[in-house]
């Protein structure tokens, strides 16, 4: 594994402690859906949406509330973004420990940094802006912004637009492993989020238990190239 020209990060479960923003927003969404007559019954278990992180929104709602109407699912898209953007303004959400410092160090080393997320464009941008990490990135790519059906396609677009020849894909879900492998990238699996099962990161080239381990990993391969 050679020193990377660039690093491409998933957002949820990799940079961002999603549950700190998502869980309060999730409950407010279902409160509003019930108020609007689009959903009946109790809010589905939190585990359903947490285990769906990394999926496209359409797939998330099909998993969270499979029997709900299409109207309810589309409305949930709108409401979740509203509630999450509102939550970001309140300042209660968190990055994982050492994310900001590590990104700053990697950027200072001349490594190009990107985000590739299956989330909506305003959400991805909003998280980065709210936590002050936007200046260290060369690009924030989202499925919502590029209308891609898979993260494989999103990363392919990113690589082409920035003429990248070798990069690391860093994430916590099987979609990150797939996106990296199908684009010929080295994959670093993040073990600290705990949203997926034990098989999520099968096929990753390396694993980290803390985000700061990434800087050590990059430095060791830079020294060994």
UniProtKB/TrEMBL annotation:
Pfam hit, one: Hydrolase
Molecular-function GO terms, alphabetical: phosphoglycolate phosphatase activity
Organism encoding this protein: Paenibacillus aquistagni
Protein name in UniProt: Phosphoglycolate phosphatase, HAD superfamily
Gene Ontology cellular-component terms listed: cytosol
GO biological process, one term: DNA repair
């Amino acid at each position: 594994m050679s020193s990377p020209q660039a690093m491409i990060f998933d957002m949820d479960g990799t940079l961002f402690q999603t549950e700190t923003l998502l869980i309060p927003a999730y409950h407010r969404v279902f409160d509003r859906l019930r108020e609007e007559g689009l959903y009946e019954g109790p809010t589905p278990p939190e585990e359903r949406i947490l285990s769906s992180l990394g999926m496209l929104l359409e797939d998330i709602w099909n998993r969270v509330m499979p029997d709900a109407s299409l109207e309810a699912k589309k409305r949930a898209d709108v409401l979740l973004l509203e509630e999450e953007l509102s939550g970001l303004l309140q300042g209660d959400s968190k990055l994982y420990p050492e994310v900001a410092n590590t990104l700053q160090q990697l950027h200072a080393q001349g490594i190009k940094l990107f985000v590739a997320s299956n989330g909506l464009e305003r959400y991805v941008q909003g998280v980065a802006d709210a936590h002050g990490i936007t200046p260290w990135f060369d690009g924030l790519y989202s499925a919502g912004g590029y209308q891609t059906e898979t993260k494989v396609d999103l990363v392919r677009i990113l690589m082409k637009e920035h003429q990248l020849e070798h990069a690391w894909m860093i994430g916590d879900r099987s979609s990150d492993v797939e996106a990296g492998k199908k684009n010929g990238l080295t994959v670093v699996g993040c073990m600290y989020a705990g949203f997926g099962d034990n098989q999520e990161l099968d096929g990753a080239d390396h694993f980290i238990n803390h985000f700061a381990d990434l800087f050590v990993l990059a430095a060791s391969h830079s020294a060994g190239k």
